[in-house]
């Protein structure tokens, strides 16, 4: 999902009743109106999602479908998409990755509305307005929380970057950049996955 954190996303909110950027808490988030918009709070900053475009949603749909086939066949867990609250830590809650993998061992159960902890894998599909958020803000949040693998899917560049978390120190290392016509995308978290990058993007 395309999230931005600049003045316009919160202009429609009555600033008299909400904190300044950098001071938001989860309790403030809970007081937001149910206006159909998607919000995240990371390090005290409120982010609001812009409506996604066709390229973005096509990639999200393909990722969800293709990853779910493998995960269900192997009984590994579940692949979910936004909107769904993830509480990475007190400094990053909620976040709502475009696509994410919760392993069977992490035990989501029926009726859950929030997942607390670090998914095994998070995926963000980059939109023009979300590039800095996805590449910098969320990159750091997922890294610090211990998300073992992070994908950046870029429809404009027709490329997928896969980052994996090292142990000492725990930081993301580029596992690979995958493009149409090249090697199939590989994953450390899902080693049996063979994903053809071309299939994630609209033709043309």
What is the topological layout?
Blueprint: E1 2-4, H1 7-11, H2 26-30, E2 39-42, E3 45-50, H3 54-73, E4 77-81, E5 85-87, E6 99-103, E7 114-116, E8 121-125, H4 131-145, E9 149-154, E10 159-165, E11 172-178
Parallel strand pairs: 5-7, 8-9
Antiparallel strand pairs: 1-3, 2-3, 4-6, 6-8, 9-10, 10-11
Write a structural description.
The chain has two domains: 2-50, no CATH class; 54-200, tt1808, chain A (Alpha-Beta Complex). It is built from four helices and eleven strands. The protein has helices at 7-11, 26-30, 54-73, 131-145; strands at 2-4, 39-42, 45-50, 77-81, 85-87, 99-103, 114-116, 121-125, 149-154, 159-165, 172-178. It has a six-stranded mixed sheet with strand order 4-6-8-9-10-11, with helices on both faces. A three-stranded antiparallel sheet has the order 1-3-2, with helices on one face. Strands 5-7 form a two-stranded parallel sheet. Strand 2 and strand 3 form a beta hairpin. The protein starts with a strand and ends in a 26-residue tail after the last strand. Mean pLDDT is 91; it is low at 1-9.
